[in-house]
Amino acid sequence: MKAYTINRYSKEDKLQLAEVPQPKAKNHEVLIQIHASSINPLDFKLKHGEFKLFMPYQFPLILGHDFAGTIIEIGPQVSLFKVGDEVFGRPADYHIGTFAEYISVHENDIALKPKGISFEEAASFPLVALTAWQAIIEKAHLKKGQKIFIQAGSGGVGTFAIQLAKHMGAMVATSTSVANFDLVKSLGADVVIDYKTQDFETILQDYDVVLNSQDNKTLEKSLRILKPGGKVISISGPPDPAYAKEFNLSWIFKLIMFFLSNKIRNQAKKLQVDYSFLFMKANGQQLAEMGNLIESGVIRPVVDQVFSFDQVNEAMEYVSSGRTKGKVVVKVL
Fold first, then answer.
1. DSSP per-residue codes, 297-310
2. What is the residue-averaged pLDDT of the chain?
3. Which residues of the chain have pLDDT under 70?
4. Is 89 in the same domain as 200?
5. What is the pLDDT of residue 55?
6. In a domain, 286, yes or no
7. Which GO terms describe its molecular function (predicted)?
8. Do 151 and 235 belong to one domain?
9. Pairing relation of β-strands 303-308 and 327-331?
């Protein structure tokens, strides 16, 4: 099969189109013909080697964390799906590789594709949807009537998180450029801040939750807009000891993450708020729940642009420009 691979960690190297063996479906796995994939910042971080110390991958490595496609083969112990099912998903870590024609995925990591949307739209959802769900519902326990600040509202995670938070009855503030005001308002944002000319710290106060996706300076400011007992969930770091424990990392990484997050955790403690880091995990059951929301029209896809399979490197360059609205998708089939 054809797939895009990297042979080393690098910021400069482009993905290489190669002919690689087609995977086979193991016991609890399904083999999927990929119709579409999408690009995430996580792909760049892996390519650049940002996680190489505690997430070592072997080369050649096929990148890609989102897909939508059709099951063409099932493993002998698969019970949830059948050949011909149209599905979408985010493969588990160490089993990624959606910049390819086929992928074998554990049945627990996928869900049926929502009806009424295309494969390209379905492929735009898994990673950002799971990130938003696990941050807002699992970690923050957002409740009706609470206030949440979602940074970078026009990005992949932001466009989904705004819609999810509004569905839950929250009051949503977000930041973006003026050019994207209409987009985030159409998704449900109540308060929109121009990050280029306005300082959210002077506008927002007594918030219950912040979904942080920006730098450390923005993270520190985010702590100060929370009410006592509020929570900051960060998807951009720094990783904390709870993350190291959850992923069963060695004692040395637990120690490293203790020191990496020590400053921000101490600041949070002084302000009587909570800080936690989120690294999203694959979860087919959660995807199925979100699929119902998508199918019912509660949450809609936001796709900026669709590239062909032979334009994967161009798609990566476009995403790295930072000008995207929602998700950038690659049409594989």
1. TSS---EEEEEEGG
2. 96
3. none
4. no
5. 85
6. no
7. oxidoreductase activity
8. yes
9. parallel
